[in-house]
Each structure stands twice: as C-alpha cells, then as structure tokens.
Amino acid sequence: MAFIKCIDLSVGYEGKAVAEGLNFEVNEGDYLCIVGENGAGKSTLMKTMLHLTKIISGDIEYGDGLKPYEIGYLPQQTITQQDFPASVKEIVMSGNLSKLGLRPFYGKAERDEAKRNMKRMDIYDLRNKSFKNLSGGQKQRVLLARALCASTKLLVLDEPVSGLDPKVTADFYQLIKKLNDEGMTVIMVSHDIHEGLNDATHILHVTGKQLYFGEASKYADSEAYKILTSIELTKGDK
Amino acid sequence: MLHQLYEYLQYPFVRYAVIVGVLIALCSSLLGVTLVLKRYSFIGDGLSHVAFGALAIASIMKVTSTTLITMPITVIAAILLLKGGQSAKLKGDAAIAMISVASLAIGYMLMNVFSASANVSGDVCSTLFGSTSILTLKQSEVMICFILSIVVITVFVIFYNKIFGVTFDENFARATGVRAGAYNLLIAVIIAVIIVLGMNLVGSLLISALIIFPALSAMRLMRTFKSVTITSAIISVVCALLGIIISILYSTPTGSTIVCADMAVFLVCYVIDRVRTA
Hints:
The complex is a heterodimer of chains A (238) and B (278).
Chain A: E1 4-13, E2 16-26, E3 31-35, H1 42-49, E4 57-62, E5 71-74, H2 79-82, H3 88-93, H4 97-100, H5 108-120, H6 136-150, E6 154-158, H7 166-181, E7 185-189, H8 195-199, E8 202-207, E9 209-215, H9 216-219, H10 223-237
Chain B: H1 2-9, H2 12-30, H3 32-37, H4 41-61, H5 67-86, H6 92-114, H7 120-129, H8 139-158, H9 160-168, H10 170-175, H11 180-202, H12 207-221, H13 225-250, H14 254-277
Helix pairs in contact in B: 2-8, 2-11, 2-12, 2-13, 4-5, 4-6, 4-11, 5-6, 5-11, 8-11, 12-13, 12-14, 13-14
C-alpha cells in the first residue's frame, strides 16, 4: 500500500478537467517531482491531493499509515502575507493548528515541536522577528518549518524556489534533499526541470494528461523529457 | 473640568455608558486585523448598512429592545454575504453594493412612512451617526451590550489561534484538516454582532471606522500578530474613553468624537512609522 495512490484521476476546477488519466503512486521515502508547463494542471493536481479542490473523476487513496490530512504543505506565498504582521514563531506554531482539535491553546508538546523545527531549519534565532522583513530564502524556511510541524511524513511543495536567487535556490534544494534522506517523503511541483530533478527519485510529467511517470533515472531517455527540454530550449533562444 | 467630570460620573447611567463604550470599543478592535488582511472590510461596510435597515424595521415594530431584531437580521446577512463573496460566478462586491444601498433606501423609507415620532430626521441621524449622546442609551440596551461584549471577547480568546491560522493562510489550514469554512463563518458572525453593538455607540455609518482604524494604527507600530491585536485593543479603548469624556464635557456627538480620536491616533502612528523606516 502506498502513501498516496491516484487511480484514473481527473483534476480541474468548476467541473472542468484540466488534466486527465493520472495513474501514479507515492511511497514512503519517495521524492516525487511533478513537472510540466504552466497551466498543464500540475498545481491543480497538487491542490486536489491536498483536498483544496474537488476530484473531477477517479480516486485518490491515502494509506500506509498516512492520514488524508497529514500533509505538510508549502504553498506559494500570497499577497496578503507580504504585509501580514506575524512573528516567525507565530507562523511556525500555526503548523500545529490541526493538532489542537477542540483545545483553544497550544501546549508544551506543540511548543517543543515548533522549537525543534525552527532549530532544524536554522531560523530559531529569527523567532521573534517579523515575517515580512525576512529575505525570500528565510521566508521559505519559516514556511517549511511550519509544514514540518503539520506532518512528519509527507511534504508537498508548490514551486518552492520561484523568486529565489540561484545561491538560495541551491541551498533550498539541499535542505529538501536532507529532509528526504532523513526519511521525509517529498512531492514537489516545479516548472524548473534542472536542479530539482537531480535529487528526485520519481518524476511525474503532466501536460493535460500523464506524459511520464516512473523513476527519475529513466526520465532523461523518455519522449516526455525531449518535449520538455525542447520547450525550454526554444524559450532560451528568445 | 475634572471636577465637572467627577460630578457626571456620580450618576450611574453615566458610568454604565462609559463601561459599555469601552467594552464595545474593545470588541470592535479585536477583529480589525483579520478584517483588513482577509480583505473583509467590504463585508463590514455592507453589514453596517444592513443593520441600519434592520434597525428601521425594529423601530417601527416598537419592540422593547431593537437589538433583538437587528442582531438576527445582520447575522443572517453576514452569512449570506460571506457565501456570496466566495462564489466565483457571483460578483461579490457588486452584490454587496446592491444590498447596501437597498438596505439604506428601505430603512429610510420605513422610518419616514411608519414612524410615529415627531422628529424623523433626528431618528435617522442618530441611527446613522450614533446617539447624539451615549447617555440616552436605555437600561435594557446597556445590559445587552454588556453581555454580548463579554461573549465576543470570550469567543475571540478561545478561537484566537484558529483565527490567526485561517487569516494568515487559509489554504494551509484547510490542507491540514482545519475546518476553515466554519471559522470564516464564525468570523463573519462575530463581525455582525460587533456591528450591531457598535451601532449604539457610533452609528451604522461610522462603525467601520471603529473596527478598522485601531488595527491599521497598531499595524504601523507592531510587527507580530499578538502585539498588533493587543495594541489595537488598547488604542481603541483609549480613544473611546477619550471620545466619550470629551463628548460629555463639550456636548459633541459621541460617535464622531471617538472616530476623530481614532483618526488622530492613526495619523500619529503613520508618522512614527514613516520616521522610523526613513
């Protein structure tokens, strides 16, 4: 049994499918990179896995000890968050929100978990700083620490390096690789096919339909890879 | 002047007015940050007009306490507006604009046609801009304000962490299994309650100011959610107290005086922020 198994899945919004015929599974310890062009349905697929968008048809099964909402999500930053008054600690702490249930306040267990993840992401010294004054890389690490509070099993990252400079991007990929080595399962949505792909164990290529799913090492030989790289090349020419 | 104030405070109804004013100001400031950041300000504005219409209905029905009528109508409107704003097909802001002006028109119409009062324009004016003096509040009104304020403050404290979660990042909260929709509804209902309460103090046209100004001021000074919330509550209470005292001493309209105090504080905070970041 896999963590997540998608069976003949169609995803979309307002009843219209943007990607169809998706069949893949994510197992414990995997590092799955979902690639494809913008508007190819990969973000919608991710939102569907996170229960943010309704399934059009087909099914998603959660198993192997993973509860349907036990997912650490690193969303793209929204405009609201640009000037939101919140400290690093407050944001990381909110990753524990679902553990509260009917309790109104955080307890020692949640505070310890937040502290541990802030140290892990090397942002503990920034804990009382305001989120909006941080650099792009620091912000991502804060949101990553929050995601780690929400799940110890599966991370879902949505275009995590967009807007980061090359140095910070490399550091960020390294951080994700380290988490994966420590046993964290990772699903990353990315339109950047280069660096992130080196670390992935599996690739899912979506462009309206499933063009490739399988081990990352075999992806470079596939037809799908040629399509994607040729697009990248023509973009580079312009 | 202090002697005069002391004399006024000897009367129990003056003391009640001050206590109720402070409690309402405290309540209204609590959700300001959420309202501003969730782009819910428009709901607050729309609701205050609905509350005006509801109050017009209540006043011609001659019930003992108008709050008993205005509260349920405004809460229902809050729920409908929230649902409408979320549906992508319906243009949320256009719907709200429609409901706002329709409520105003119906409210004024009802008050004009059915009112037995000799001074209709005076009634309308005090509904829009608050009682000319907070001292004219009825005993029953004072009690209801008091109880509802305590309820709002308690609910806010209990749900503080959840309100922060759905305000900062609704999608994240939803993805981790938090029932964000239910909390959005809770926020909308609290806003409705605050608006009905605040209408007694500053009137339906000025209540938005009471909700938004303290939060905006606090956001210039503070950088964390907790400190912004606390500062905003303090600013709101101080301004309300100041406004009420000035309005008693100089017989100015209570609502406008409080809002002017809030505005002055905002300007000061704005300048401090500018100087600090320059």
